[in-house]
């Protein structure tokens, strides 16, 4: 496996904190009192089997889904109290999201996919494309700039997705099984690129994975089971909540 980048100090302050999160879909409890903290510049892996609640946790932390109970705090703001407009603003500026299958816009080139968040933020097309090209270069896919998603390999598409997630300079990247659809080599390339860029820009990463090799790239790992964070010796908040509410 690739050499890891230097790790942040464990004394780094919490950037996002979640306490007592509960979320149900019908009779299914996806989250049952989950709590954790993500620190400035930290790469935190949330591991666990499919259906354990990992993706629901990510969706609550990133403001995509509102929990039924509990509090998510980012930068002094409680996400559950924010209007949709403010949440959308945070997802365009402070949060970057990467899904397993990328979700690139199939009709657009790689360059235009990466430029899209900048255009939505009001940047003019020329500067937006120039900045997008620089990010494609950083992720080693500048040569695919004029290709559409269907014309690229899975690994190339996922690196384009990472470039799009980071092009706005977010403080947090939420990565949901970013290597789940890739072979081992492509997965290592994607994780190496993500970790290197996150370290370089001091971006925090919440990494959702069921793969122990992917989790090994993180500074810290917690394990989710049946909607509760059940282990992770460095995650005292999560353990205490699991004991009280699980």
Helix and strand topology:
Layout: E1 14-25, E2 28-39, E3 43-47, H1 54-61, E4 69-74, E5 77-78, H2 84-93, E6 95-98, H3 110-120, H4 125-138, H5 154-166, E7 172-176, H6 184-201, E8 204-209, H7 212-215, E9 220-225, E10 228-231, H8 236-245
Parallel strand pairs: 3-8, 3-9, 6-7, 7-8
Antiparallel strand pairs: 1-2, 1-4, 4-5, 9-10
Notes on the structure:
With 246 residues, this protein is an alpha/beta fold. Helices cover 36% and strands 25% of the residues. The protein has helices at 54-61, 84-93, 110-120, 125-138, 154-166, 184-201, 212-215, 236-245; strands spanning 14-25, 28-39, 43-47, 69-74, 77-78, 95-98, 172-176, 204-209, 220-225, 228-231. Strand 1 and strand 2 (28-39) form a beta hairpin. The longest helix is centred in the last third of the chain and has 18 residues, at 184-201.
């Amino acid at each position: 496996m690739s050499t890891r980048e230097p790790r942040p100090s464990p004394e780094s302050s919490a950037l996002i904190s979640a306490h007592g999160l509960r979320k149900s879909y019908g009779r299914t409890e996806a989250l049952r009192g989950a709590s954790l903290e993500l620190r400035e510049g930290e790469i935190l892996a949330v591991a666990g089997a499919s259906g354990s609640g990992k993706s629901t946790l990510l969706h609550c932390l990133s403001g995509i889904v509102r929990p039924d109970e509990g509090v998510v705090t980012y930068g002094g703001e409680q996400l559950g109290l924010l209007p949709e407009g403010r949440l959308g603003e945070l997802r365009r500026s402070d949060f970057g999201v990467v899904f397993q299958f990328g979700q690139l816009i199939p009709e657009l080139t790689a360059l235009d996919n990466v430029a899209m968040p900048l255009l939505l933020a009001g940047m003019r097309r020329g500067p937006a494309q120039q900045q997008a090209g620089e990010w494609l270069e950083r992720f080693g896919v500048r040569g695919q700039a004029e290709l559409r998603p269907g014309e690229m390999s899975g690994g190339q598409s996922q690196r384009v997705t990472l470039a799009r997630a980071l092009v706005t300079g977010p403080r947090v990247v939420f990565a949901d099984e970013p290597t789940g659809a890739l072979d081992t080599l492509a997965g290592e390339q994607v994780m190496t690129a993500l970790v290197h860029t996150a370290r370089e820009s001091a971006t925090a990463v919440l990494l959702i994975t069921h793969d122990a090799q992917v989790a090994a790239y993180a500074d810290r790992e917690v394990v989710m089971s049946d909607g509760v964070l059940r282990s992770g010796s460095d995650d005292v908040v999560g353990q205490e909540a699991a004991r009280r509410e699980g």
